[in-house]
Design brief:
The protein is mainly alpha-helical and 229 residues long. The protein contains ten helices and no strands.
């Protein structure tokens, strides 16, 4: 392979490095224009000759890997016609970069496939979890409905005094959990005004019941009882 002395390719890279020129392929800020102008100042045929004669290991000794591979890609893009005109196999450094790029693309495709597979698994698992939640929700709903039916039957069998006591002491459910209208099916003379007032206060604190007919009836009963006393 060619020595680094009198090597137009090596000299070009050194000059770009010393002048801190942008050699990043696809740069959207400057397009590597200063480096491209520097390339065009050199005889293309002679530059390509020296690229053919340069070994990858020598480049790695002189420059950082990212620098010389990026710069070489810009060179290859800028004077690509001269490479194609040769009609022979590409130089080692270009093959190395192409192999590296193809490997990168393969890894990227593999990673994309892995991400797709991972996303499909996530969707599948989410669907399973959602189905389990739905089934559990259905079971819970059925259980709660059965439990409410039992509680309602029990509540209906109580005396009006006992019903009022249940409503006052049950802090687990809202009061409309029970059939409230059933408390008016019997005479309420046995219920103390104090309990009626406490129940009325509790119902008024519940948004669904504060303006309900049940509250209005309780208020009327309390007022009638107070006036009669």
């Amino acid at each position: 392979m060619n020595d680094t002395l009198n090597n137009l390719y090596i000299d070009l890279l050194k000059k770009a490095e010393n002048e801190k020129l942008c050699v990043r392929p696809g740069c959207t800020t400057c397009g590597c224009m200063k480096f491209r102008e520097l390339i065009k100042e050199i005889n293309e045929s002679s530059l390509v000759d020296d690229i053919y004669l340069t070994d990858v290991s020598k480049l790695n000794e002189i420059f950082s890997y990212d620098f010389w591979t990026d710069a070489t890609r810009v060179i290859h893009h800028t004077i690509g016609k001269e490479f194609r005109r040769r009609g022979s196999s590409e130089p080692q450094v270009i093959r190395h970069i192409n192999d590296l790029y193809n490997k990168y693309l393969s890894e990227r495709r593999l990673k994309a496939l892995e991400n797709i597979h991972r996303e499909e698994e996530k969707v599948k698992n989410d669907r399973i979890v959602r189905r389990k939640h739905q089934e559990q929700h259905k079971k819970n709903k059925e259980f709660n409905e059965q439990k409410r039916d039992q509680d309602t039957r029990f509540f209906s069998q109580l005396s009006v005094t006992e019903k009022i006591r249940v409503l006052l002491e049950d802090n687990k459910h809202t009061s409309d959990y029970y059939p409230l209208s059933s408390i008016f099916e019997a005479e309420m003379d046995m219920v103390s005004i104090q309990d009626l007032e406490l129940l009325c206060i509790k119902l008024k604190r519940q948004r669904k019941l504060k303006n309900s007919e049940v509250v209005s009836k309780l208020v009327q009963i309390i007022n009638d009882r107070t006036q009669s006393d």
